[in-house]
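Re: the request from the purification team.
They wanted to know what the chain is likely to look like in 3D before they choose a buffer screen. I agreed to run a prediction and write the result into the notebook, where they can find it.
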Amino acid sequence: MASHQDGYATGRLRREQILTAATELFARVGYRHATVLELAQAAGISRTGLLHHFGSKEALLEAVLQRRDAEDGARFASAQADQTGVAALTALIDLARYNVSQPHLVALFAVLSAEAAAGEHPARDYFIERYRRTVEGARRSLLRAREAGVLAADIDPEQQAHAIVALMDGLQVQWLLDPALDMAGAIRSHLQRLLTVPLPR
């Protein structure tokens, strides 16, 4: 007889499989055009089975976005301890390199952020908050760099924080259209112009 723990592990595995399938489908057709039935079919389960794990399409989208945030957060956690801000800025370059291996995640972000910006959308508040948080993180890193004396004298942290986030998002869309584009290299070149210390290659 299977133990309660075995059942829990199986349920978790199934949820992860659903999230992976949903991520790929949302990235391909967007949130609006993905039906619950199509999401279930992509995950290899029934519509009822999908709704057992996630009560609605909106709840599934929220879980997909939360999983991406958790993955990104883990990547930046150690960099936050650096008081010069340079490690956190370097982590943006590393993130761009990682994203090259995850085209479905890049596509997911590009498709959903465009959908959410166009009007009523369940992820609209999520993206508003995510941009606020991401810009604030970049601004804090630049302010730390200025306090540490490694930020170029003419750099405005507030303006550059928005510019860095816009650059990363714009590069992602261009890369989806032209995978030969070196996203990490372009981001590194931009950040290097802001700092007076060399960034790692």
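For the purification team: The longest helix spans residues 4-33.
Please add any questions underneath this entry.
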